[in-house]
Write a structure and sequence with these properties.
98 residues, mainly alpha, 4 helices, 0% strand, elongated
């Protein structure tokens, strides 16, 4: 490794800094944290999902309705909004009689 120029020294130093910074950021392990072999992976993931689940009201407040996310009473609010804005009377949805 011929380190005879200043750009080479700076380049090698920057590369070493990135590698050591990554090692320090990951907690001294480049492969991630060690998993407990006594804990079932499926149950661990279920607990993580349950812990991260948010109430529908909170989601509706942040995102609003639409895009597949509809709160209780959405059909009535939609029917009212269409009647008010466009004068279209949308009938209530009737379940199929088949």
């Amino acid at each position: 490794m011929g380190v005879r120029t200043l750009p080479a020294v700076l380049g090698y130093g920057a590369a070493l800094a990135v590698i050591l910074g990554t090692y320090d950021y990951t907690g001294g392990a480049l492969t991630g944290y060690d998993k407990d072999p006594n804990v079932d992976e499926y149950l661990r993931k279920q607990e993580l999902r349950k812990n991260r689940r948010r109430p529908i009201q909170e989601t509706l407040e942040e995102l609003g309705e639409g895009r597949g996310i509809y709160g209780p009473g959405y059909a009535e609010r939609r029917r009212e909004r269409l009647k008010q804005n466009y004068g279209i009377d949308v009938p209530a949805s009737v379940p199929n009689q088949s």
